[in-house]
Amino acid sequence: MNAPLINIKDISFDYEQTKALDHISLKVEEGDFLAILGPNGSGKSTLLKIMLGLIKPTRGSIELFGQDAKDFKHREWIGYVSQKSNSFNSGFPATVEEVVAGGLAKKSGLFHRFPKDYKESVGEALEAVGMESFRDRSVSELSGGQQQRVFIARALVAKPKVLILDEPTVGIDHQNVQSFYDMLASLNREKGITLVLVTHDVDTVTDKITHVACLNQTIHFHGYKNQLDSMSDAQRKAWYGHSVRK
Ligand code: ADP
Ligand code: MG
């Protein structure tokens, strides 16, 4: 069997004043669509930053694609769309194409270089998120949901194997959330991209995901999403603070 793409082994993380994560172990296998649920402040964003190597755990270790994270050289295999990445100030001048192409830019001295075939790559990424007809539009004219799709395209353009998304539906109109998750499900099922998603949209997302992890400083549940159905209401309340759909 192939190694897990992400293997978190008994990690903890403390900010100066706060214990954010306490003895977390979690595996993400190729093809998974994992939703990480948990109340505000439960350490979800911190866990994603650790997966990305943006911060180092206080204790424990991480393997990426079977390698110790310290030795892992293929950061472009793991794409990331951070929390609130779609909240632009209104004067943002760039076009959709420019924003997406930014995901391919390599810095050389003062300049950014783009690969020769970048137009084609940008087109493919926009198509994958259903935004190809918006290519020449200014990003600032788009709705929150459209901007979020552009940011996902910016992450996809580098052809990651795993895409990590932190609360991507914040700022998306309620009636557009379902189609947003349909788009994520097609990235997972048709393009074979492994997805790790932090969200509060428990009801909308349960039909799309394969796995769920319930976090509150530590992992209270991690497994196939259908096992969630067999949890008692009391267990749900313990990890999530309120009941969720059965
Ligand atoms: P979530 O994403 O689940 O809302 P976070 O991972 O952002 O939670 O935060 C977990 C805990 O760590 C919270 O108590 C939060 O206040 C604290 N925290 C987050 N970021 C920082 C930081 N940069 N400095 C200090 N404490 C932080
Ligand atoms: Mg967060």
TrEMBL record:
The ABC transporter domain, residue ranges: 6-241
Superkingdom classification of source: Bacteria
Organism: Planococcus chinensis
Signal peptide: none
Membrane-spanning intervals of the chain: none
Family: Belongs to the ABC transporter superfamily.
InterPro entries in the record: AAA+_ATPase (IPR003593), ABC_transporter-like_ATP-bd (IPR003439), ABC_transporter-like_CS (IPR017871), Metal_Ion_Import_ABC (IPR050153), P-loop_NTPase (IPR027417)
Protein name from the UniProt record: Metal ABC transporter ATP-binding protein
GO MF annotation terms: ATP binding
SMART domains reported in the protein's UniProt record: AAA
